[in-house]
Amino acid sequence: MKKIGILFGMENTFPWAFIDRVNQLSDSKNIVGEAVLIDKVEQGVQSDYAVIIDRISQDVPFYRAYLKNAALCSTAVINNPFWWSADEKFFNNCLAIKLGVPVPNTVLLPSKERPTDTSDQSFRNLKFPMDWGYMFDKIGFPAYMKPHSGGGWKSVYRVDDPNDLWYKHEETGQLVMLLQEEIQFTDYYRCYCLGGKYVHIMPYEPRNPHHLRYATQPKTQGEAHKKLMATIHDYVLRLNHALGYDFNTVEFAIRDGIPYAIDFCNPAPDADVHSVGQENFEWIVEHAAKFAIEKAKSHVDGRNNCTWGTFIAGAAISPEPAKPAKAAKESKPEKSVKAEKEVPKEEKKKASKKK
Which end of the chain has less neighbouring CB within 10 Å, N or C? Predict the structure, then answer.
């Protein structure tokens, strides 16, 4: 028997619908879906689950530790708890640039308050004052300030000028913040991505009340809309393949026809029917169940069954170092090589004349 479990907190509509759909879609009596139930956690001991969908460990450290132990003992945890623990929004923006995905201009701000157990000497490598003029010119105003690692629209500020930034920065405590260019958008999209292959693009209006954010229609139409959808689909897959997230959302703000990735570190994204709407809810329930069953069927005991993104997988495979001799030869201009070959001949002639 292979069990697919879902670990969740206060949400109600998605988890139970997911469990029901897994049990409906499973073509084998050997695969069953249920809510995860934990009665003990012992180090190095395998869990009862082939697959676990994680919807809550970002808020409960006990669950995160449980999931890492389960993943180490071959459970396919979605999303990978090791990478999720290390990931954050500023790094994601840096990676997006390397992947060729447009993102808003962004800089990193040190925390207003020093971290606990640090002193002035802990920051001797930080130049005071920082180059605020350069950063403000790069980002412009108005801008957005938000935690470099966080979610749920917590501690997000719109700042109108430097004085407004200093005033609001006072409230952020020990949070490390991003200062990000404002993208004045004509359209906005939120995209589910499952398993690095299932993509669902949803028109989204972040300025609406929470329950009405999906109640909108795209303004871009015709061939321009088709081209935009293809580009967004491509960018969603690029980002999730590199990050290795099996369950994520990516948000895009459209400015002058260009989709800018705004937020793509959402490994426990909203999937509540009351906010995403019935059509989007049906899609995420169906495809989450389908993907979880696929993971259960491919699960192998004793193997690492978690997904690792191409960023990590590529870094783990070091390329062969270039051969020094060949590199040196290729780096020299052709004339220099000839000159080196001619020197010994001239020296031989001079030597023979002296004799």
Answer: C
